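Re: that chain you flagged

S.,

Sorry for the slow reply, it's been a week of failed gels. I finally had a moment to sit down with the sequence you sent. For the record, here it is as I used it:
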Amino acid sequence: MRYVPITQQPYCCVPACIQMVLHRRNLPLLSQEEIGKELGLNVPVEDVRLLPHAYTDDPPKSGWGTRIDLEEYSLNRFFERRDYPLRERYLDPEHFPDKPTVWLSNQLAADNDVLVSFDYQMAWGREMSFGHSSLVEAVDDDAATLVDPAYAAPKLRDISPERLLTAMWARGIENRGGFSVIENSP
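Prediction finished late last night. Pasting the structure tokens below so you have them in one place:
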């Protein structure tokens, strides 16, 4: 396996995925709470007892969790502040490649990490609709295998490229649905 699966704390799917990336790349690890704080983790007031260093601002339009869509909380800022030799490139569903499985295979072959952000309900057919992130573990012609940090989900889940694209669109470009390619910085 490419990643050691890590289960997320509440609202911490992105920090859990970043932990998996750091572990795979043998970089210094941080707690989900530390990563979340730097990525603008925002939680409801009643849940701050679980994550005492999180922000409790008004509910964001994109939902509770990290705010990596804002420059001050971006993944690139986080990598720079922590001196991690990484950078992130965002690809929204509008610019999704014609052959997604080939593109994903190329990213993995180049030793890049691919974080995907999508609408949970559209991806997995659950009742609740909210944003979620996972890492691409593997890909073949028919499906991408995602490492899902959700606590009540299988750690490895297959999804068709078509369904993944629909789930990214449902998340919306304005809420940063799409791919974040994490690669070595130049």
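What I noticed first: The beta strands are 86-91, 113-119, 131-139, 144-147, 156-159, 178-184.

Talk soon,
D.
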